[in-house]
Known about the structure:
In chain A, strands 6-7-8-3-9-10-12-11 form an eight-stranded mixed beta sheet, sandwiched between helices. Chain A has a four-stranded antiparallel beta sheet with strand order 2-1-4-5. Helices cover about 30% and strands about 25% of the residues of chain A. Chain A is an alpha/beta fold.
Amino acid sequence: MLDAAAPPKKIVEVRDLKMHFPIHAGVFRRRVGEVKAVDGVSFDIHEGETLGLVGESGCGKSTCGRAILRLYDITEGSVVIDGREIGHIPQKELRPLRPRMQMVFQDPQASLDPRMTVAAIIGEPLVEHTGLSRDARLERIYELMDAVGLNRNFANRYPHEFSGGQRQRIGIARALALNPKFIVCDEPIAALDVSIQAQVVNLLEDLQKRLGLTYLFISHDLSMVRHIASRVAVMYLGKVVELAPRDDLYETPLHPYTQALLSAVPDPDPASAEKVKRIILQGDVPSPANPPKGCNFCTRCPRVMPVCHHEEPAFTEVAPGRFVACHLHDGTKIPEAPAAAAADQQGDAT
Amino acid sequence: MTDHSADPGFEEAARPPRSQWRDVWDQFKTHKGALLGAGFFLFVVVAVMIGPWLWPIPYDAIDIRARNQGPSLAHPFGTDQLGRDMLARMLKGGQTSVAVGIAAMALSLFFGTLVGVLAGYFKRLDGPLMRFTDLFLALPLLPLLLVIIMLFRDPLRAAFGPETGIFILIVFVIGITSWMQTARIVRGDVLALKEREFVLAARSIGTPDRRMITRHLLPNVLSPIMVSATLGIANAIITESALSFLGLGFPSDFPTWGRLLFDATDYLQQYPERVIWPGLAISLTVLAVNYIGDGLRDALDPRIRGR
Lengths: 350, 307
């Protein structure tokens, strides 16, 4: 899908993004700590690609997606979208930039205002950002409804009259209304049943091809991410532990967490499923308010080393396009050969 | 399920979005109680507005020989202890009572909703505004009313004339002492709504706070506001009667429903019908308004509409 020969334009550059939520406690509601929901995340998204962002519940995926769109005021770091730094500019200046970046939400029921008609919901971005006349706006709304496969006659209906998949289509139409370049899909299929998931994912892919969209696809469904993403980032406890092109990541995962995560994906073929040895992680995810010292994963890592408990691994490029944050790969910087060897070794180990 | 192209029910050509108010009216019409309530309320309003012009006997005409009469053709509602016609007094009293009820309700609703929405939406205002609300809830009402009326009665009378002055004062007093419940309910609802994803979605579109409130929050807190409004009218009518009874409201010879009720309680044993008329008028008006509120609430909620 995406060849390395001609490096495409970076549309999103996230550098050391941190999103900490304060915890207030006690009689005087003093600040006693913070939840480090996203704690130093860096990645790029190239034009026209889909970056999958996976991880277990509560690891900061959704927060990361929302922070990139500045739905939160981020604690630290920089976000460059389409060549413009938006990390710390006030919301007022952000407003004219909103049309370039949109979001599809997880819960299609909750993300649509129950008191607005479909036409009003899809039309809201148009009202906010374009000076279209009533008729022109309606025309555009119909166009969008066609694009996402909704019957035009549904324009006067209310969200509660639709099925989950149709509601998600409304959400997608709203996100598309302003011709954005970049869309954050925050688990758009998590609330749908499997047959509808496929429809929605195919719709997203189809729209991407037609409109040249760039997605950040947040999901916990590894098989779906494998289907749609061109590169995949794995998050654990607020940090990206591994970022690699899709095929590399699924073939030879480098980080022990990625390995464990992938080993948990059910295999439809019973014969090969028997052969797969599952890596069962012990213990629970530590609290993001009080992450362990050193590597975040050191409390549960099956291959933990003494160094992991006091030194945080750097997020380094171990092979072209492959980033990992793990002490196991400390020595393996590019050039290519040792990295490949390490990958092989890794493959044997699992 | 999602394949709608083959559905024969949707053959009609795409029509432009209907006005929401048409839908609301269509739904309102299906609520019999609400229609009945609206009809009765309209009847009361029209009767008290034009009734005093049509009924030949003035409300303050004393006919001492015809005092304490029961209902008759000349005096359908009877007469009071001074021989004044009860029907004329009811009509005249209704003018004041209904006007006070609606105006005070509107004022308290406006103030309550404003405080509630601001406190719920802007975190910085939440503490101060809600403490302010608590302060009002904790105020001893009667001493406060006494002070307000003592301070402002004479200037207002001088500025607007005795009746209008008192009217403004009463509406204001009832309004500012009854907004707190609405404010609390609205704040609670706004706090919950604010965390819903559609508000986040609107923010991702870049909707500014002002329109976030008017487009997304207010329509969604309409139900509790509606309920507060209907209860508020009843409350205002009753509070006004209590104030009149205490001598803090309108002058004692100026009829309001509450005033008539309290005057009649002295003769409850001998002439019970004199209590019944104003009592019935207050209860039925309140009931009608409650039904209207009920119907409106249903009609304004698209999830209930069309069911």
